[in-house]
Amino acid sequence: MAGRSPDGELLAHASWEAERLKKKIISIAILVIVIGLIGYRVVQHMNQKTLTAEEAAKVNELAPSFTLQSLDGQSFAVGGERDKPLFLNFWASWCGPCEEEAPDLVNVYKKYQGKFDLYAVNVTPGDKMDNIKKFVDTYQYPFPVLLDKEGKNADAYSVIAIPTSFLIDRHGVIREVIHVLSAKELDKKLAKLIAES
Questions:
Q1: Residue 78 and which of 5, 115, 131, 170 are 20 to 30 A apart at CA?
Q2: Are 149 and 71 contacting, i.e. CB atoms less than 8 angstroms apart?
Q3: Residue 119 falls in which region: left (phi positive, over 0), alpha (psi -120 to 50) or beta
Q4: How far is CA 87 from its chain centroid?
Q5: Is 66 exposed, middle or buried (CB count within 10 Å of its CB: 0-12, 13-18, 19+)?
Q6: How confident is the model at residue 173, as a pLDDT?
Q7: Mind listing the pLDDT tens digit of every residue in the chain (197 residues)?
Q8: Measured between alpha carbons, how far is 76 from 172 in angstroms, rounded to an integer?
Q9: Local structure of 59: helix, strand or coil
Q10: What is the CA radius of gyration of the chain?
Q11: What angle in degrees, to the nearest 10, is found between the helix axes of 96-111 and 183-196?
C-alpha cells in the first residue's frame, strides 16, 4: 500500500486551505454587498420626504396641486378653483381592476362630456410606456392620460391601491375617494358631483 508523499500531503492541504480561503472571501464579499444594499436603502429612505397626515389628500379638504404632462405632451394642472368638477383616476396598465373599470370610465365620460373633466393619471414608475399606450388604445380613452413618472403625485394623494379615484369639486375640494364601482354606482356618484358643483 503506497502512502502519500509529504509533498502530496502538503499539496492537498494547500489546496484545501486555498478552497477554504476562497469560500471566506466569497462570504465576506456577499456580506459587504448586503450591508451596502441595506445602507443604500436606509439612506434612500431617509432622503425621501414622508408625507405627514396634514399633507396627505383628505375628503372635504383641498386636493394637492400638481401639473403633469399627458401622453400627447400637453400639461394639465390639478388643484384650486376649476370651471368644472374633476374625476381624478390613478391607474396602471398591469392592473386587472383598472381594465375592469376602463369601459365604464369611457362611458360616463361620453355621457357627461363637457360637464366634468376626467384625468387618468398613470402611476408610471410601475408601468411601461408601450403597455400604457396599448391600454389607452385598447379602451380608446377619449380623456387626457397623465404620466406620474416618479409616483410623487400618487404619494401626495396617499394612493395605496389602484385604481383609486378622487371626485374633486369646482372649488378644488376632494368630495369622495372611490375604487372600482359598478357602472351604475359610478354614474350615480358622478351625477351627484356634477349636480353639487
A1: 131
A2: no
A3: beta
A4: 18
A5: middle
A6: 95
A7: 555 566 666 666 667 777 888 888 887 767 656 565 464 454 444 444 443 444 557 888 999 999 999 999 999 999 999 999 999 999 999 999 999 999 999 999 999 999 999 999 999 888 999 999 999 999 999 999 999 999 999 999 999 899 999 999 999 999 999 998 999 999 999 999 999 87
A8: 14
A9: coil
A10: 28
A11: 50
With beta carbons less than 8 A apart as the criterion, state whether 147 and 70 touch. yes
Between β-strands 145-147 and 164-168, what pairing exists: parallel, antiparallel or unpaired? unpaired
- Beta-carbon contacts of 94 under 8 Å, excluding residues fewer than 6 positions away, are 126, 127, 131
Residue type at position 67: T
Q: Which of 76, 113, 107, 89 is nearest to 194 (CA)?
A: 113
Cell of 30: 456577499
Q: For cell 492541504, name the residue.
A: 13
For the record, the C-alpha cell of 107 comes out as 362611458
To 5 degrees, how large is the angle CA 120–CA 73–CA 78?
A: 45
Q: What is the dihedral of CA 147, 148, 154, 157, to 10 degrees?
A: -80
| Residues, the chain | 197
CA distance 54 to 46: 20
Helix count and strand count (H, E) for the chain: 5, 7
